[in-house]
Every structure is written in C-alpha cells, then in structure tokens.
Automatic annotation (TrEMBL):
Record carries keyword Transmembrane: yes
Protein name (database record): SURF1-like protein
Family: Belongs to the SURF1 family.
Membrane topology, from the record: Multi-pass membrane protein
Source species taxonomy: Bacteria, Bacillati, Actinomycetota, Actinomycetes, Propionibacteriales
Species of origin: Nocardioides jejuensis
Amino acid sequence: MPPAPERRPHPLSPRYWGVHLLAVVLLAAAVMLGVWQLDAWKTKREAAVRDLTTVSAIPLAKAIGPDDPFPGQYVGQPVSFAGRWLPKSTFLVSGRERAGVEGYWVVTPVTVDGTKSAMPVVRGWTPSQSSVPAAPSGPMTLKGWLQPAEGTGEVDTDTTDDVLPQLRIADALHFVDQDLYGAYVIASDTDHGLDRAELDQLPPAPRFSAIRNLFYAIEWWFFGGFVVFMWWRWLMDDVLADPDADGEAADEGDEDDVPA
C-alpha cells in the first residue's frame, strides 16, 4: 500500500505566523517611511515657493527650540528674541557678494534668554576683514530672518583664523563655548559700521536637496514591493506547492538513471 501523500500545513497555521508577521512589519515600515519622505519633499517644495520675509515676526521659541531640527516651513520667517551678545565669539563668513563686490558677513552669537544655547546672528556685511567694527555686548532684543544652517560641503581650509567659507553650525562651534541653535538669524537692523546683509547673498540651495526625498520615498516603496514579492514566492514554493508533483519529478529522475 503506497504511503499517504504528505499534507502540508495550511498557510495560516501557527507555524507560519512568524513569517507572515515579519512580512507585514517590513511592508508597513517601508510604506510609512516612504510617506514620511514624500511629506518632506512636499514641505521643501512648498517652502521654496513661499515668501515669509514680509510677514509679521513671531517669537523665536514658536519657530525653533535649542535642540530642534530646522523646521522647513519657517525658512525666511521673521523672528524676534532677546538675549545677550557674545562679542568674543564673533566670526566672519566669506564669499558674500553685495553690488558686485565680494565681502564678508559679520556674525556674532547671542545667548537666547531662557536657554543655555546661542543663536548666530548676522549683524551685517563688510567688504574687508580690516573694516569690521567692534561687536556689541550686553543684553539685546532683535528681529531678523530665520535661516537653516548652510552645508554645501565646502571645507574650511584654515582653522586658525576667524573666517568660515559657509555658516555651518559644526564650524561655528569652534568660536563658541556653548551649544548653538541649528539655525541662524540675519538681523533686519544694520549694525553701525556695517552694510545691510541681504537674503540674496545666501548661497544657492542645491537643486538635489528636495528631489532627494522623493527618490528616498520611491526607494522605500520599491523595497516594500520587493518584500511582497519575496513573501509571495515563499508562499508559492514552500507552502502551497504540491508535494505530489515534487515526488513525481523525483521518480522520473530515478527512472532516467536506470541503465537500459
């Protein structure tokens, strides 16, 4: 009497729950991460076409906290805050052009009231390192435009001076003995002895910065599709496959090996 054919467990039997659960978790994670990257792409696109420079100033604390990542919806947002100047931490940022003349931004951090962190403040523009007026000291109140930290990849080749090629927070920390906000403010009122720092002196944003989030979203969704495909292949090959068909194929192979 031939042996009874092997019966495989039902696809929803408890022995397969772990595989199903893993597939669901990976798929859900891929979908959520893709949606998150898509939302980031939409936020950056909306920020790129929205001009906040002429709206009313809001308190700095409503836009960003000392340890917060930069909120993309507040690029160029006028903010107001009070604090105390840190004149010994003043530094310059090179490569800022005004009326065809390349010069420097003069930046002095301010310890923001109610926090232990400092906000870099662009006080104005100067054509020469030798024409920088003395930094103010003491308490202050200020209004200005909030900007994200720069990060074009340009390297500071001379770390012994007080000039940076870009306003990158990691580089600015070399001049300050305390934490810095992940942003900076361009003062709306010009400091005495300096020309006004304009928003059009900002370096152009990389074109790939926003579209990169869209590519990341597509990659996550592609990964989710790959998870579904691998789960389906496993289901077809290892769970729903007909064991009799495998046995018949093996028998045919044995018959072919018998010598004539």
